[in-house]
Amino acid sequence: MHFKLLSASFGAILLSIHTSFGQVTENPKVEESSVPYVKIKRVELTDANTVIYLQFIEPKKQQQPQFRSQPRSSPFPDSRVPQFPQQGIGQSQIWLDPETRLYKPGEIDKKFKFIRAENITTTTKTSVANGDTVDFVAYFERLTPGIEEFDFYEGRSSGGNQSWNFYGIRVRNPLKKDAGKSAKPVAKATAPPARTPTAKPAAKAPQKPAPVKKEAEMAILKGTIFNSKTKEPITAQLSYIESGDTLQIRSSSGKYRVGVDAGEKYNFRVMARGYYGTSFSLAPGDSSGKSFDHDVYLTPLIVGETILLPNIYFETSQYTLLPESFEELNRLVDVMRDSPTVKIRVEGHTDNVGDFDKNLELSRKRAEAVKTYLHEQGIESSRIEAKGYGGTRPIKKGSEEERKKNRRVEFVITEM
After folding, report:
1. Which residues pair with 233 in a beta bridge?
2. Residue 160 placed within a domain
3. Which helix (H) or strand (E) holds 297?
4. Of 282, 300, 318, which residue is a domain's last?
5. How do residues 319-344 score in pLDDT, each as one tens digit?
6. Which of 234, 269, 300 is the last residue of a domain?
7. Fewer CB within 10 Å, N- or C-terminus of the chain?
8. pTM
9. Is 50 exceeded by the pLDDT of residue 4?
10. For the chain, what is the largest distance between any 2 Cα atoms, rounded to a whole number of angstroms?
11. 94: domain CATH number?
């Protein structure tokens, strides 16, 4: 059916809906969503269904993904997934996954299945012209009375397509009052008359139950991203890799919520303009829980701030960078690309074991190795100073395990 005809028929559907439907929440508050171009306009709770009215607005300007050259050994791919589906120039293709579910936050076992949709396909993709709007409706099983916050989870993005996930949807859905105990008691039934015994029917052969398709278990990761100095939430972006795809979630409030496969392992990367990013790992299967809380604190980029580069590795007693360092160094490259006026001083440090002069020289060469890497990634060398301090600035004393922390690389912001 032509798109404009679909829009017209959708309007007729809205007018035909009976006004006796139950609880209605117009423009419900949504804590976080995975995409900015799909909105929940209304949630209606009938006796049988949870009815969600959504609106897709095709972005007028297509965003092109940024490509970055990286060493082959880097764990991150060269390309990143666009922030909206991009199957052709000037248009998108949309559909609603029939595996979409509604969940009660933190209680993954409480899920409500998808039933049907109106004005959007669930088996094939429909093209949408640049700038057009599509209103559509999704029907799910009825939320249990008393659940007044839920998640709309379409799934994990793949193949360059972005799934539509909404977290923390607030609706009116109060508990039902208990029915009165005024029902009349039912009289006991009399025993049936005796019957003449008949031959016992032959037993049926046991039927083998049909195989049940096992759903992938889902876990929820949630938290808030803060400024480490002020402890205030900040606008940030969280990205992670799943099944070869790089997925991104933007949060304007600092709060985030992500649905992940309980059987996978994840490495999350957190970035924000004006801050030095960080990363953390999660393996839901290693825990018996299905809900995880993880707050993140990012260091603001201000003149004089010293920031540790936590994952920089060299060959033993050498200054050759190991591939495990590239992810951390690429994070610094991103910061300097996003803030072209920032200048830094890379500082190398060793412990105080061994010859003083050799340690000083080793720390200087390690700082210079980091500077060389940044320059090879396109950062002007005039923006980077390299200096070695040997073992003159220890941060830990005591055991050998503690002294290992003195062998580190930091950078100081010298100019903004």
Report:
1. 226
2. yes
3. strand 296-300
4. 300
5. 999 999 998 999 899 889 988 999 99
6. 300
7. N
8. 0.55
9. no
10. 108
11. 2.60.40
